Amino acid sequence: ASSTLDHLDINTKKEGKNTTSELGQTAFLELMITQLSNQDPLSPQDNGEFIAQLAQFSSVEGIERLNSNFEGFTSNFASNRALEASSLVGRSVTIPGNTTYLLDGQLTAATAEVPSTTTDLSVNIYSKTGELVQQFPVGFQKAGDASMRWDGLNLEVDGKIISSTGGRTEALPPGEYSFEVTASQYGETQELATAVSANVNSVSVEANGDITLNLAGVGPVKLTDVKQFN
């Protein structure tokens, strides 16, 4: 008989059970006992080697169990995230960008990051085709986030109502529009970073567990990119 575990052949297939290639602790102990009973009496196996083999096997088995438990935890975590994200359907979120969708009779919100106080903040509204459809001369604006709400006719900036140039009296039709916010900063006119609100139409869960929000007029946006839940 062989004196090493490598030359022992164990058939793990038993009647009424599926074949498995995994080596459990019971099978390992059976292997060790078989090896001990079949070793050469003139050249016995060192007991220390058996102890080392058993310790090594126990470590591997422990790691496998840990991996299995972690995979289960990850799966449950992803499911919980997807369930929470699904509750956002129909709600509005704020994301970095300048494109939004105007709904009939509703307001669309946006913010602009103003690095320093300015006296000539201006907001331009463009249609989906890139046509300039409205201009709002806001004027003075202190440093910080300028909060804007637009109904297709007038613009409200930090509670102050501003009418567009040209004396427009009817609101623009529902559709996709984009904001352009400019201000004089350090003697130069600069375009400011903006964030816009959009309604969540649906939620998608990617194969890797990432969650994507499908926003009206914007398209797919990763949940991690959302700046604010309105």
Chart the SSEs and their pairings:
Layout: H1 25-37, H2 47-86, E1 92-96, E2 99-102, E3 108-114, E4 118-127, E5 132-141, E6 144-150, E7 154-157, E8 160-163, E9 175-185, E10 188-191, E11 194-205, E12 211-215, E13 219-222, E14 228-229
Description:
With 230 residues, the chain is α+β, with helices and mostly antiparallel strands. Helices cover 23% and strands 39% of the residues. The chain has helices spanning 25-37, 47-86; strands at 92-96, 99-102, 108-114, 118-127, 132-141, 144-150, 154-157, 160-163, 175-185, 188-191, 194-205, 211-215, 219-222, 228-229. The strands form two sheets. Strands 1, 3, 6, 7, 8, 11, 12, 13 and 14 form a nine-stranded antiparallel sheet that branches. Strands 2, 4, 5, 9 and 10 form a five-stranded antiparallel sheet that branches. β4 (118-127) and β5 (132-141) form a beta hairpin. α1 runs antiparallel to α2. The chain starts with 24 loop residues before the first helix and ends with a strand. Residues 1-21 have low confidence and may be disordered.
Quick tags:
230 residues; alpha+beta; 2 helices; elongated; disordered N terminus
